[in-house]
Prior knowledge:
The complex is a heterodimer of chains A (302) and B (254). Chain A has 302 residues and is an alpha/beta fold.
Amino acid sequence: MKALSIRNLTKTYGNGFTALHGIDLEVEDGDFFALLGPNGAGKSTAIGIICSLINLSAGTVRVFGHDLVRHSEKVKQCIGMVPQEINFNQFETVQNIVLNQAGYYGIAYKEALVRAEKCLKQMHLWDQRHTVSRRLSGGMKRRVMIARALVHNPRLLILDEPTAGVDIEIRRSMWQLMREVNEQGTTIILTTHYLEEAESLCRNIAIIDKGTIIKHSKMSDLLAQIKVNHFILDLADRLAQPPVVEGYDIVQLDSQTLQVGISGEKGFNQLFLELTRQGISVTSMKNKSNRLESLFLDLVGG
Amino acid sequence: MRYRIALLTIVTKEVRRFMRIWPQTMLPPAITTALYFLIFGTLMGQRIGDISGASYMDYIVPGIILMSVISHSYANVVSSFYSTKFQRHIEELLVSPVPNWVILAGYVSGGVCRGLLVGTVVIGISLLFTTIPVNHLGLSCLVFLLTAILFALAGFINAVFADSFDDISIIPNFILTPLTYLGGVFYSVDMLPELWQKISLANPILYIVNSFRYGLIGVTDIDITVALTMIISFIVALIIFSLYLLKKGVGIKQ
């Protein structure tokens, strides 16, 4: 069964702006799925509709076989939502935020206490359970929203830019938490601007632009489309002009730095042999940019 | 069972909210009404004399009690639901499988709890100044409760349409307060010129105050059956309108 199946989903706002132009999207049960797109592409509108925060104009949304319009309560039981912006009561304690959400899902108080403890411990927030939420750091607030979204054991967890604005250490720890949740069987849909995050976590991907899905495939298939990777080489000695190596696109960035375009079939060996032969010593090498980022920019015309 | 838990969660959250800020919610009405009773009842009342056979103090007690119920049941829902929208934690409810009627019942119950609690405090204050003869206990309790429900519903609708904090103060300041003061709290409509008596009949608060006054001291300017029918009709109309707004997502969904 598909965790999510969207057909011909259209959204036109009251001011006449059409944010989604009849998109189709499918997410398998158990998947870790990335939904990417530039700002204003329609990601948040699509997620808002799936989570019942925005009314759809046309089309169908089915979550684990339940139709969003006809069986909205069953759909809502299946979904946990972590929004982009903080949207809990900042005057409530951490534990009460999670307990209230459990109550909205009809979970009895005794059971809710047990589940809240489990979720808060999983998100490393148990020690802060009596803290009023406005006193928490940004990273902790985001983890509160994940704990809140998990308290009713959703089958589908939707994360709308969950790591936006948090430092790299917290981001990495949140990646680990998301992986654990997915490994426990929860399907995850992730939107993010950190393409490294999507590449690292997700198995399938859709790219949306101007309200239309322009790519929908496996992450590995998408990355395989990348024909040329660019690398930055730092050199031991200064060069007057860039070396010429047949089959490689080499640009000199400054006297001790080269940018080299390497196609998949060429590899590195021939390049380094030729550079060594020309007496050029390479001290370090790094990717010019994230691979998915290059592809994303190609697709959305950035 | 699931809906009952969701309803209890909303009501508990609401009650906890206004109890947490009790110096703002419970204390001011106690002080204000004590001043009303002192100035209008004790000092001026002796010079005004009796109205419809009741002392002026006894005459104004029912209206002052209901004034506090009206303003606090309204204020609780309008401020709480608007804050819920403003801080976006309305989304917690919208993503959850909570039916619209549970959301409405939860917030209205919160307003009713505060209205009745403040009303009870005011009754306690009034007992320091006079004894309240209760002629029809059942009717008094019914009007007490219906008033809180009616104005909690009105507060909910105000909050649904509100786009700013100004919007939640305009109606209480410019509509509700004048209607309350002109609703026969401090005087009998029989004391007004004939034209103003007719205009006063369009004020729903007049019916509420007179019903409650009749329940307590047995004095009214209005037919009680007509008054109760009007109050219940208003409540039914506001419930239907509120549920319509929630179904359409007015003010809360795009």
